[in-house]
Amino acid sequence: MSNVLSRLSRRRFTTGLVATAVTLSRCPLVSAQSIIAVIPVGTNPFGVACNAVTNHIYISQGDGEVSVIDGATNQVMTVISPHIGTLGGVAVNSQTNRIYVVGANLGNELAVIDGSTNTVVAIITVGLQPQYVAVNQVTNFIYAVNSQSNRMSIIDGSSNTFLRTIYAGKFPNTVSVDQLRNRIYTADQNANTVGLINGRINRLTRLIPVSPIPAAVAINPRTNKVYVANGGVLSVRGMPPCQSWTAERSRW
Question: 173-247 domain in CATH 3.40.50?
Answer without folding.
Answer: no
